[in-house]
């Protein structure tokens, strides 16, 4: 049998395997930036600097994606423990459409839970995951 090394940690694997375990395979293929698709209206207003937040509904799908990307922990300082998102800036790629040839930009963002601005697409009295955009950079495929 041929001897190889795990593509993530370098541990010896045998046969045609690329990773020593399923966790390393997942980490290798999911270690890139988070990519979110936007409608043109919101894409342009964020790019111009007018809109500084993006919203996603609080649902299990987004909870799993954001938790995997940002991470969260429990705050036990009060009687009822609350979930706190990590406050480190993360890079998110915002894309207008599907596919690598579509207009996109990267942005440094933090996440929280709260209510959004109605003029920016949020519904009144609805709680969202709020992605606060701190800096926009890395524009690609944008035609002025």
Provide structural commentary.
The chain is α+β, with helices and mostly antiparallel strands and 144 residues long. The protein has 2 domains: 1-31, no CATH class; 33-140, no CATH class. Helices cover 19% and strands 38% of the residues. The chain has helices at 22-29, 40-47, 60-70, and strands spanning 3-5, 12-14, 34-37, 53-57, 72-75, 82-85, 90-95, 104-115, 127-140. A 5-stranded mixed β-sheet has the order 3-7-8-9-4. β1 and β2 (12-14) form a beta hairpin. The longest helix has 11 residues, at 60-70. It is flat, with a radius of gyration of 19 Å. The model has no long low-confidence stretch (mean pLDDT 85).
- State the shape: flat
Count every beta strand, where a strand is a DSSP E run of 2 or more residues: 9
Note the main sheet. 5 strands, mixed
Approximately how much beta-strand content do the residues carry?
Answer: 35-45%
């Amino acid at each position: 049998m041929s001897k190889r090394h795990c593509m993530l940690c370098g541990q010896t694997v045998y046969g045609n395997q690329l990773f020593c375990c399923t966790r390393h395979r997942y980490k290798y293929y999911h270690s890139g930036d988070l990519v979110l698709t936007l409608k043109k209206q919101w894409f342009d207003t964020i790019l111009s600097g007018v809109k500084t937040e993006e919203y996603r509904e609080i649902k299990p799908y987004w909870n799993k994606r954001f938790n995997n990307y940002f991470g969260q922990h429990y705050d036990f300082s009060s009687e009822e423990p609350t979930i706190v998102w990590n406050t480190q800036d993360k890079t998110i790629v915002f894309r207008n459409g599907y596919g690598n040839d579509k207009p996109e930009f990267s942005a440094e963002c933090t996440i929280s839970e709260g209510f959004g601005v109605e003029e920016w697409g949020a519904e009144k009295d609805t709680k969202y995951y709020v992605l606060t955009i701190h800096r926009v950079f890395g524009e690609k495929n944008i035609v002025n």
